Queue: 4 jobs
Job 1
Amino acid sequence: MNICLILIGGFLVIKIGVVRYFSWAAVLFVLASCSVTPELPQEGYAAISKQHLRELKHWGLDGRISISSPDDSWSANIEWQSVLHGDTIRLSGPLGQGAVVIQLGADRVSIDRGDGQVQRSQDPDAFVVEQLGVFVPVRALKYWVIGLPDPSRAIRYTLQGFEQEDWQVEYKEWQSLAGKAMPRKVTVINDKIKLKLVCDQWVID
């Protein structure tokens, strides 16, 4: 069952007298309380319970990613597996062509382009810029993709997400996995980069 975020910004008011007004208000309140919203909570990012996200130890996602900048743009399929000791991110084209595998640890990163040579570094963010040609904050992205702010950065909450440093993170849609909300569409933007992630499938443990 998919979960989606729907924001409603209007009110319908019908004046039918004081007694009837409160009667109808009570009925509407009961109906609203009993209504089922299988897609998404309607109050924005702050309304979504995130305790289960903070407790995640192992998770995986299959989806699609696109990154655009003034100089370049590209898109790929993405498979992301996260465990306690690190993350494995696999980017590939159609039918798995041109796969790039990124291994991310606490203080290291490696990139395997499938040519038999694995490049390694102890500066993940700078290394990704060097290898992929665009700056992607991979350390922070590990938190952002699952719906959480990076605990090492200052945060300012917004209606659909939050801002950290010069990055704006918005959760356009959510989906349900075992009754718990997980991101489906995530957008990460700064003044130079726009990253879009669509999470087609989640596996959580």
Job 2
Amino acid sequence: MTGESDHIEINERTPFMFSGTKVTDGFGFMLVTSVGMNTAWGQMMSSINRDLNEETPLQARLNKLSSYIGKVGLSVAALVLLVLLIRYFTGNTKDDMGKREFNGSQTDSGDIMNSVVGIVAAAVTIIVVAIPEGLPLAVTLTLAYSMKRMMADHAMVRKLSACETMGSATIICTDKTGTLTLNEMKVTEVWLGKEVNDDTSLDMAVLDLGMNMEEVKQNYETIRVEAFNSVKKRSGVLVKRKSDKTLHTHWKGAAEMILALCSTFYDTAGMLKALDEEERLQFEIIIKNMAAKSLRCIAFAHKERVDEGGLVPQNLEENGLTFLGLVGLKDPCRPGVKVAVESCKAAGVHIKMITGDNVHTARAIAIECGILHPDENLDNEVVIEGVQFRNYSPEERMEKIHRIHVMARSSPFDKLLMVQCLKRKGHVVAVTGDGTNDAPALKEADIGLSMGIQGTEVAKESSDIVILDDNFTSVVTVLRWGRCVYNNIQKFLQFQLTVNAAALVINFVAALSSGKVPLTAVQLLWVNLIMDTLAAFALATDKPTNDLMAKPPVGRSEPLITLIMWRNLIAQALYQVFILLVLQFKGRSIFGVDEKVKSTLIFNTFVLCQVFNEFNSRKLEKKNIFLGLLNNKLFLAIIGITIVLQLVMVEFLRRFASTERLDWGQWGACIGIAALSWPIGWLIKCIPVSGKQLAYHSASTS
């Protein structure tokens, strides 16, 4: 159940066993107490099958934001509708000839109906422009693009929303075996006598000896085998050499248990020496030091005697053995894990290791991986066992959970309990795992990451992302892409809200003052189409940068729109509103044109302002908006397509778009006015604001 195979003593105090348990020693009667979903395994599987139907942190933010924007749009549209209707029926609305459109009973009912329909259409258009219907497209494009690129980085996304959720992660609960380590036991130390042999001498010895196991088996006859016993913690074999009929007893097992049976030992030179108390103490120190380095220490001993008349001993000899040496086995950390852990820490993401291994091994691996510092005070419940965490009261768990960095000897329910507590604390939790026992925690977590090589099918089905190379460094790559997704969505959101705010204000002010909206329904829908669809493609395909990993995680409660975004958004929107209102009220006198050309200038300038503002939206904080521009060819292509489409709209689709042709000077004026958004964007970014403060109060409280 813990994912680690180990021998557990069954007695009167702990009489229960799980199905599938193997008996290695002793005998007894077994009584079935639970079957099916009532077993411990069944309860674990039922927790996997629960459908949580929880919103991701980003989905919750977007829903609140969309609701807020929709309410604002409806309010403005209703106000514009009311103002336009009042102005029309009070005779304050005039046509292009300066005549009143409504003259009471003298006005034809058909003209009244057409005017009212036009007013309603203008109000509906404002609603269409205000509601960010391009946002779902931008989110989907960003997620799909990231999903494709993550596949090349050894991460297969099973659930699209997992891409953005990882960007908000504040804590990663990781397994040890196979994720932080290689899941391959390797010999790292060999002690012959009281000296350790390095890797080079071991390799040379193997090459020089060239041992042929088949030849050895032919020269010896196996007499008796004693299997590993959890009480004695050793296994042995009695063999007889065919050439001289001598009997050889060989033991291997826990170092301290084997050492206690020995009275002599071989030193490094191969000389047989007596194992006195002083020598025994030195070997005990060596064994303790090996255990402190998370090595599984195995000792070897033997005894040789002459075969006495062919009598087979009933038991293997256990006294007066000769100590042969020690072997230290270790499951080493994966290459690059320590660097990956440091990257997570630098990004403000905390790492908690949850394993079924023992406390000493877990602590040593955590130090080696960089999760724990060697000088850190480990007595302050930084490293605990699962049973200890399980026995805490709910209040104690919530109080101490932030101090816990390593949890050893944990069951699947301990891991699940840890995830639930962290989520109640407001964290966005990512969990890695490879075994069936990890499935409940993978399912419960905001984002579950299973291993593609070592992972079971149950673990993969319970996860959101499959790490194809089983490497923790790939988890960091997923974190980078997750933050990139969140950042790209923020870019598009800042851009679209600037468009919406400017369009709403200019139409509202113009409606109050003149009774007409400067941007027609077709023009607003055109702006909505090219700005929503094309801008979504342009801003959703930026690749992750190192700057993203230098910021703290946004977590679960941070607003989607930060103060930095508000600063940029308000500045650009105010500039656009100002320049468009100047054109609305003074455009005819400034350019010496008629009403239709003036309206075309307003429309063209408004669209070109959005084109130039797309460049500003690429970088929310940096002043150099052209940094890395050539790396995103799609962005440049979409900018070009937008300009071409706008040229066609103004010059060739005049009847459809209610526009007039502009000369070179007028086009130059529109481009020059729109280009001023670049220096304005640079200047506004010189104003320092905090990116950490909560800025979108309405979204977080509604």
Job 3
Amino acid sequence: METTKKIRVVFYARVSTEHEAQINAFENQIEWYKAELLRHPEWEMVDIYSDKGVTGTSVKKRDGFMQMYADAYAGHFDKIVTRELSRFARNVEEAYEYARKFERCGVSILFLNDGIDTAKSEDMTIRFALMASLAQEESRKVSTRAKDGQKISMANGVYYGNGNILGYDRYESKAPGEHRKTVIYEINEEQAETVRMIYDMYLSGMGLSLIKDELERRGRRTAQGKTNWHESNISKVLKNTFYYGLITYHKEYVDSYLHQKRRKNYDHDKFEYAEGRHTPIITKEEFDRVQNIMATRSVPFQQGRKGKKPAIDEWAKLLKCSCGCNVTRAHYSGAGENKKVAYQCYDVARNGTPETRKKKGLPHEGYCNSQFVQRWKLEFMANHLFKDFLPEKDAVVDLASQMLANYLESAGEDADTKTALAKKEAELDALAQRKQRNMNFLLDGTLDAVMFKQNEAQISADIEAAQEEIAALRKELTENNTQEVLEERIRRLKALLADYVSVDNDDNIIPELVVTAFVKQIIVFDDHFEWYLRTDASNKPIACKVKGRVNTDKVFTLSDSIYPYCFPHDRLLSKKASNC
């Protein structure tokens, strides 16, 4: 007798508020799933996905939902069972989008209370659209109720945020018979002294940089308990109305109830203020004086352009300090078009060298001591490495073109990234198996609900972290390696190379695009540079150093007795550098 193949099903549940969570406790949800299984002997349960305490308007904010979609794409189950469409999505467009996505994965959705099964074609039309529209309208009502509740909270001086405010300790209390907890902010005297110190120093005429140094010299700690300060931390303290007892609302806003994207509000006229329930640390007069000083020192900026930086150049992308930090671009002499460009370790630019910090009386142990790297040195080394490594100029264009053509086939040359991605994907598979075993232990009685939830929370957190790392690795592999992008790079590279090799002199500067085509990375050390070339399958660097000044510099390729992976003999290139 032929055995009927069972339908692999998963259950999805979502609770978005404390009230719902109390009525439909997680343990009760588990019992409901078990009862549904008994009523459908043709089902075989694979997993249970849930999201608690998150909005229903955007599925991308729901980790459980997105994990369910990833598992559907991997073919782990055949059907999703959920109570009602409003638990699935509250946006008509999004409901249709994901219903179709699951359908393309071969997965249907059963909405029990709504009587809709997407496996039946007629249910994917009028009834589905009607129920999705009702869910969307409910979302709008929820958003309106939330805004009304926020207005009441603002009127009562309730502070929104994580509560990690320098100068205050956050506590929660719950009066007998009350449902909601009350948040209390009490002054932390040690931290409050730091706040007063910041205001006093600024009012005495000190700037943010000097205040930063003084706080570090005195060993004062940030709200996170760190002794390393940033000017941005200090600026936020000086601008925070909370310190004189006033709470500012609407610094950010949500663009719509459907998309739930948070935006920064640059229109200060739309800010709202309310007296807080906490004790102020400074006076309003002190705060106003600080704002007046900041206004005279600040540079006006256009809305939406605050903090916008110019595009980073190719050398800055390639360079990395031996301490592990990226570099930042700087100018060390000249003006206008005659500015001399250099690169500096970001840690040094932000915190200063150990010597500088020691002179200022600041903690100096463990800080980077990297010096400026002038761009002309990089161009000088690149010129000689390029011409010496590839002496046959006619072969340069063919080699570079072939290298980029290979990228078109492989869609990324980074073997280390691919290895890391494979390892992380294997880790994600193992976590999925752990999650399934945890569910099995609950169903067969090996685990109680409390232990199950503890395990589930840890596994879910590990899965989320692994998914984020996988997404970042995949982006790294695919970014700038599309067919159109690489074909355009080949075209431009050929033109630049043709111009470069047609000029036979030592002062001809190698184009940056040519450099990025052949160089993967340059590590900056105190006394030399390590160049990692794309042409070297062994991924061993060429170590170089530059001695002298502009127009009298010499490039040394270090001997293989020091660096065995370098060229097979000592060479001294004594050609003039281009003064750029």
Job 4
Amino acid sequence: MARLREDVVALVYPPQCLLCLGFEVATHCRFLCENCWQHVQAEPIPPPRNWRVTPPTAIFAEDCEFDFAAWPYRGAMSVLIPTMKYRDHPSFAKIFAALAALRMREQLALVLPASPVLIPVPLHPRRLRERGFNQSLLLAQVFAKLWNLETWPRAIRRVKFTDSQASLSALERKHNVTDAFASARDAVLHGRTVILVDDVITTGATISACARVAKQAGATRVVAIALSRSG
């Protein structure tokens, strides 16, 4: 009955590709047509970024060593990620996390020890109520399952509500997230390598703020992963 209902809805309201706006939607990804889905998969994987030698992240290098992303933040990703976050499409995170896990697996194996812990960048409770989900947590849960890693979603808390980073300059982003995060009282990160998980990395300000908290809680090494990265 449920499948029949879905078929009727699809007949009356044909699914439309979010990128090319065509109506021929792929079976692999219900919100992209086959051509756009293949284009997303064919996009080159950005190389790992060493924070010590790459502006604008060099100023944060004491906090985080490297970041990894499955896609550059352009084209398809610059449309799909905002759609996921601001138009209530949490299923995007799960679909693209599975593909991202395959794309980043070899890169991560080059620099990480056997058992890092995944920590999603947290949302402030107010933002979580507004959005209804934390996309970074959804990504981390998929990565943890596919890579057989632990995920600690409560190790870092967002304790200060901040403006959206999207329209801010690099300096404004840094100031915006100052003192925005804190470690949970029972967070035991001593001697652990932490992988911070976010949807997009731009200047690195948010990742840096979380990484600093993780190191204060005892983490010996912090890197970051994201669906997409600008720069």
